[in-house]
Backbone:
């Protein structure tokens, strides 16, 4: 059956993002090295991020506020104002960093755009994600860009309704089982998992959750057109 | 001509928001009183906010990062970590504050929802705006909720295209000439200005910019159904 709509996650599916977070955390550890051991810091930052999701949602700005809160907590308020400014400067650097596309992304997306309606579905800060799409050079290939606060079954169901697409004619590609693959698979749509080299702890799903749910796994995005041809040829 | 789509701004059009920013700034002034005079503080905060728009866009999280940056700058880095934590706590309070609807909003929106397709168009942090819509109790009246990073002519043109609505059949209501009224009027759509008691400096437009552009002004949202009946009756 032909596909009506092919959607891509953006961060670490179309372009590299993980290194920005990893670099920011490395610099954050450096800043706080006089006060705190690195092991303590990473665990505590993750805890603070999770605790703050209900206030800030996903994205660089919430991540930054959580870094600041972590720094204050772990130093009992002794962290210097100038160090906190450096944390804010890390955020600004993340928000304006050059966009580095993953291998094979540009030709793959360009080829698929000639035959299919393409969409980006990404979560995070609205303004940040919009400027990344604009700066990526890929905007022209995508008919729609949807920036959502979370990616769950309801989000995808609402998007399919908004765009009048049946689940069987929708395919979603991404690097997160939790956000891009499982909620799409449970709707009966096609889900394609393309793991990124590094996966954020919060995006990891135990194998048994995935068991029994049908999704495809590819090592590289360049393999996607062949998979789509196969899916459209069968049934 | 009948209207196809009636859109409302949210903050300070459907529900009160300005007091949250005013209260946060008052507490911020209190926190920094040992270091800085109040007059210096307000002006500097506004400057920092404007300077940071290109990084953070609109919304509470960016506002908070700008408060922190202002505190650090004006104290030459001497602001205490515990005071910065209190700024973050102000943000959390803003993000979870009870939604207080403006007068006449609920009955007006309920009545219009029976005859027209209604939409919210708001800018700010995606996650924050979504939870406010949900907590407002008004979500059921709106067919669409559009959260955008900025409200300009292009934003509105893209929304009209997305929803397949001609400008003459679109009406937008809001409390900001700059964001809700002028960009809608220049598209040839109907724009209704309902001023809020307080207007943020950045949202103020000089009178001469508005001159010659056709828009309606109402003192209260409750006057909207009569205006709509009049618009639909004529032409």
Residues:
């Amino acid at each position: 059956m032909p596909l009506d709509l092919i959607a891509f996650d953006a961060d670490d599916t179309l372009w590299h993002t993980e290194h920005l977070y990893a670099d920011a955390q490395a610099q954050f550890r450096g800043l706080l090295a006089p006060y705190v051991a690195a092991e303590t810091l990473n665990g505590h930052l993750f805890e603070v991020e999770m605790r703050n999701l209900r206030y800030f949602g996903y994205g660089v700005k919430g991540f930054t506020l959580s870094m600041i809160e972590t720094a204050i907590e772990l130093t009992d308020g002794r962290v210097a104002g100038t160090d906190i400014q450096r944390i804010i400067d890390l955020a600004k650097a993340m928000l304006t960093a050059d966009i580095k596309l993953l291998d094979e992304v540009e030709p793959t997306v360009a080829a698929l755009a000639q035959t299919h309606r393409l969409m980006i579905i990404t979560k995070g800060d609205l303004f940040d994600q919009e400027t990344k799409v604009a700066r990526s050079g890929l905007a022209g290939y995508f008919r729609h860009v949807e920036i959502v606060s979370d990616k769950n079954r309801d989000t995808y169901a609402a998007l399919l309704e908004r765009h009048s697409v049946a689940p069987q004619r929708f395919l979603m590609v991404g690097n997160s089982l939790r956000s891009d693959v499982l909620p799409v698979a449970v709707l009966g749509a096609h889900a394609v998992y393309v793991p990124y080299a590094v996966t954020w702890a919060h995006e990891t799903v135990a194998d048994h959750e995935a068991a029994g749910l049908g999704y495809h796994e590819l090592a590289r995005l360049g393999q996607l057109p062949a998979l789509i041809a196969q899916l459209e040829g069968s049934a």
